[in-house]
Amino acid sequence: MKKRLEISSLSDSAIFKFSDKKVEKYSIEIWPKRSAEYFANLFLDGILKMKDTEVDVMGLGRRNLGEAMCQVALFQNYGLIKCDTPFTGESRTLEIFPREFALWLAKCLESRNDTRVEYKYFN
């Protein structure tokens, strides 16, 4: 069974819902909307290369962010993802609960072309 990520735009944020075997596992809200669009575009570029994941995006615009450098810090029960995209001059940080979802999103970034992902583990 394929995994599925749904991204829905709200007026000032976006909801990311991840399901596996038709059962919702994780749901997060990212705000402000500009940060949600930034991370949605980064994750989508990687997800589209993953054969085991379907994606459905509602209401978010696509844009090219170019090369990305991301650092992923994984703690006992959550993760922090920080990405820099020199092409757009943007740098953003995202805190994700639980850790398993943060790790899955980091794997999406790894699947993206021109993206370097570095990991640090803290227990």
Question: Can you offer a commentary on this structure?
Answer:
The structure is a single chain. The chain is of the alpha/beta class and 123 residues long. Helices cover 23% and strands 46% of the residues. It contains 2 helices and 8 strands. The strands form 2 sheets. Strands 3-2-1-4 form a 4-stranded mixed sheet, with helices on one face. Strands 7-6-5-8 form a 4-stranded mixed sheet, with helices on one face. The radius of gyration is 13 Å and the shape is globular. The mean pLDDT is 94.
Total helix count? 2
The largest pleated sheet is described as:
4 strands, mixed
Distance from N terminus to C terminus (CA atoms, Å) equals: 32 Å
Strand content: over 45%
Can you give the mean pLDDT?
94
Helix content: 10-25%
Q: SS-based structural class?
A: alpha/beta
Q: How much is the radius of gyration in Å? A: 13 Å
- Overall outline: globular
Write the topology of this structure.
Layout: E1 3-9, E2 14-20, E3 23-30, H1 33-47, E4 53-58, E5 68-74, E6 79-85, E7 90-96, H2 99-111, E8 115-121
Parallel strand pairs: 1-4, 5-8
Antiparallel strand pairs: 1-2, 2-3, 5-6, 6-7
Helix pairs in contact: 1-2
